[in-house]
User: Fold TRAP transporter permease from Billgrantia pellis.
Amino acid sequence: MSNTSDPRPGASEEAVVKTPDSIAEGVDEDIVESNRRLYVGWHWLAVAALAILYSGFHLFSLNVYPMETWSFRIVHIAGALVLGYALYAGSRFANEEGTDRSPAWLAWASYALLIPAAYALVQVFLMNQTISGGAMRIDPQVETWHFGYPLLAATAGGILLAWSYRQAREKLSPADLVLMVCAVASAGYLLVMFNTPLRASTGTAFAPVGITWAAIAGSLLILELTRRVAGLALVIISAIFLLYVFAGPYLPGFLGYPGLSMNRFFSQVYTDTGILGPTTAVSSTYIILFIIFAAFLQASKVGDYFVNFAFAAAGRARGGPAKVAIFASGLMGMINGTSAGNVVSTGSLTIPLMKKVGYPGRSAGAIEAAASTGGQIMPPIMGAGAFIMAEITGIPYTEIAVAALIPAVLYFASIYFMVDFEAARKGMRGMRKDEIPQFRRLVKQIYLFAPIIILIAALFMGYSVIRAGTLATASAAVVSWISPNKMGPGAILRALQLAGTMSIQIIAVCACAGLIVGVISLTGVGARFSSLLLGLAGVSQLLALFFAMCISILLGMGMPTTAAYAVAASVVAPGLINIGIQPLVAHFFVFYFAVVSAITPPVALASYAAAGISGDNAMSTSVASFKIGLAAFIVPFMFFYSPAMLMEGSWMQILRVGVTATLGIVLLSATVQAWFFGPVKAWMRLVMLVGALFLIYGGIYTDIVGLAIGAALFLLQRSSHGGGAKPVTSS
Assistant:
């Protein structure tokens, strides 16, 4: 890719150095999971058209012709189920030789299940005609025997067969075809019933029994697709909550509740109380729109430019690739909304380069995991969780984005100084001039940042999030026309196809989280948890906050950020509000710990993904990423003690808290890395930790004490290591 400079000792500094035009290639490429099908020929065209239609439907409905809310959300989930089962297999693929393909009888058994699935779908059309003809309701026997039982038999049978069916990667499994039909049948029935006065009967004895059957089938389909795209963790947690619905009446203490019948629960869980509630409301509007925006940025290769820009700006500093990872992964993670997914996309470039300049595999993976996780708390987009926060709290999204600014700066400052002090301690170099793109070349394409600037400007000018996101998406296409990667009609269709594919995971996760939220809401377990927190707060508010932190992290372990926050916000946030904490502070507290669960041992998805690239031990990487992201475990407690950290207070208070907390983060990083201007002794680390906590705390008197400690340590270190100490280990 590049020519190296003259290696001879004493070679002239004016020797011609050819620098690469680009060091980041493929950051914008779609990550293909091991269980995703790779179609060819007309199969590829059909699935691509389906993905384009799905993305286009959302753009049209959100901007041109809005649908009725519940109907829109039902179609949103059903489309993701159909597309998801078309793309993601339920078991591993057959080998290239085809020697381990499933026997023919499994295929025939799957095709046989198409009969009850298709029969249930036909019944939906017949019931729609009956309702349209003036009938008030459908005969319950018809709903049960001609719709419910066939639909459940086909759904359960299709899922079981899909677990054991192995086929070539480029072919659709007949079992998954059955599940696609079942998804349409289930959604079709709900669309028919929820568009009549019968919608008001959900959760009562008067609800049509067919709603229960459709909701059970829909829930099973959501759980199975979540297993395929996000793993077992969220499915197991959902299963525990569902089990609680029926086992709860027999449990002792605060966990017990009066109980719900199957019909009452399932007729209500597929409404805006549960699956069609806040999580799906956000995934069907803001999240899908920003996924389309991210897909347009990827199709125009803006992601590659972001990473190249980061290398040009910070690559030559000591430990350069690690600092690049902080900037690039934070920026990309903010847009794509998944910590582990971002680790895979940007980490495949940054982790090997970090190892090249001297970082151990463990540190390289940990830095990438911590930076990618931080993207979820970086305004203005903040992954996807902030949209759910706005939906749940009713606080304007722009207010949430502004409040997130200081904590996000503190988090990334912490990672930066952790990296810098480690690089100094180990004597690491930056990248050579001939190894990175020239900054002056990349500055000429700085207009590629325009879509993000337009997004921010539109949000703060008062445009709705949907209008701002649409303008930013359109601007990404327009800006590409003056860049080397022009987006014509083909590239735009490719972006829409990519958006449809990218959206499946987050939509399945949000729907699955909605199922858990529905259980919490309908059983009242959240209210009982609130009373438990209230009791703890009577002993100590700090103890209540610590307990809330543990529950938020525990609920988030193994779960994507969006689902982790949605569940924790339903269980923990109301309890914090009840003990007197402001709603914004309570939700930010929960949000931060839901986010950092991705780097919290023992189940740390982002760290595990980074370990897979670095080749180091997964648990060791998660411990190292926990250490690097330590600020994220301290700062949320300061929201309660110093609301100015969330932009609540006078400008002088906010400025003082921002500056002193940043200085505290520097001391905290030096404490962890045992390096300031040089090695830090054990007693000095203890004093440094006290000073750091005093500065982060945010009180006026603690700030004064913290500044005095910091100044004394600064002078002491400068006098001992004024010229910079020699590194402990050589790179």
In short: Residues 649-721 form one domain. The chain has a mean pLDDT of 87. The longest helix spans residues 489-523.
